[in-house]
Amino acid sequence: MKKFHTLLPEGSKFNQILCAILINFxxxxxxxxxxxxxxxxxxxxxxxxxxGVPLTESEVSWMAAAAYLVCIPADVLLAYAGDKLGRKxxxxxxxxxxAASWILLLVSIETWALVLSRALVGITMAxxxxxxxxxxxxxxxxHIRGTLGxxxxxxxxxxxxxxxxxxxxxxxxxxxxxxxxxxxFHIVLFMVMPESPSYLVKKGxxxxxxxxxxxxxxxxxxxxxxxxxxxxxxxEQKNDxxxxxxxxxxIFKDKILFRAFRIALVATLAREVCGAIPVLNFAGExxxxxxxxxxxxxxxxxxxxxxxLVQVLGSALASSIVDRIGRRTLLTSTALISGLSMCSLxxxxxxxxxxxxxxxxxxxxxxxxxIFCDSAGLQPVSVVLTGEIFSFKYRASVMGMTMxxxxxxxxxxxxxxxxxxxxxGIHVAFYFFGGICLVTALYVTLAVxxxxxxxxxxxxxxxxxxxxxxxxxxxxxxxKYVGSFRSINIT
Length: 491
What we know:
Elements: H1 14-44, H2 57-85, H3 87-107, H4 111-129, H5 131-139, H6 145-149, H7 151-169, H8 172-190, H9 197-202, H10 206-217, H11 224-241, H12 247-253, H13 255-272, H14 276-281, H15 283-290, H16 300-325, H17 327-353, H18 362-388, H19 392-424, H20 426-447, H21 456-463, H22 466-490
């Protein structure tokens, strides 16, 4: 039987890592698209704007909000398309849309082109957080799926920092050409990558699924481990066929699925309402409020660089430790630290209002801690966790629904954070974010099972309601008693 590795040793993880990197490369480009807003908004609103006249606040607001608005329906549509057309085709589509957004900016500098380009970013946003994590999970072995699953956040944050750096040293059009080259380069490379084994099994192409698994695992097609993994995928999908065809009905009717859905929803919303989104988007204003009367002045580019570097460090830490300490521990600890940081910052603003002593370093430390925890735990673990607690049938749909709600939450924060902070006080907003994080830490401790290196069956056993476990145990004890009684009678 043909081997699917030559220079690589049997069982090597190289092909999985390579595939995961290329799967998540569109997330890097998406991160650059998000990072583009920071330096380019300043340029487009200046007297040196490439448009000829500075953009108005209204035009910039539409540019910022367009991606989040489009992302809401795109989350659901891409989840559906991924199950129907395949993960690989959708990844190529995402890179194509990304290329189109940069081409549009090269072709026109008019307001409609700027807003439409940002709207296309909403589609790449949906693909980055729906399609890419699912695809990554489905090509990864259990003991490294956490590490590879965290690549989505690492690539996002690295893309942000990449754009912050080149945005400070390159011209407007040069940046656009560099960013256009990235998705074009990816499309060419990704053509040779395999389809998801789970999708191939779903389509009845078991032989191709076995060949893909053999290539990913660097083993022979007839290797017993390949056959065992293929059997697990088949059993998982066979169980899906026995459930309701209406996904929402099946989720709300089944106690285990509903508990899994609640966990995915809480983890996803906590990721978006932990305070990181307004901190990243309104860092300039927050630093300005915090530095009034103090020697704590950072330029907008210094702020972006600082927060971007903190994000990258956080996401790099997550990738390196998530498969060692587990999802539950990482999510609980980062939510707790983030909550305490937000409450400390809120208290700092209250103390400052009443004229008490307020150390100048505390706002920067707490903001950086919030961003670090978001990148090190809240973001990556929520993505990995959602992919691990659902089977193929539900995975994409749940990711689409939860990400759609997350996008709506982001849009609301972008729209109302500044007005509310100005009217009722920024300390109220930070107390709210801190409270959300602390409640999340408590919820994870009480309700979320550990998923590290565990199969779906093992995870669902933990999610089974106690009453069901007791009834199963009672049935087992009854059968055992009856069997013993019969053996006595026979004797």
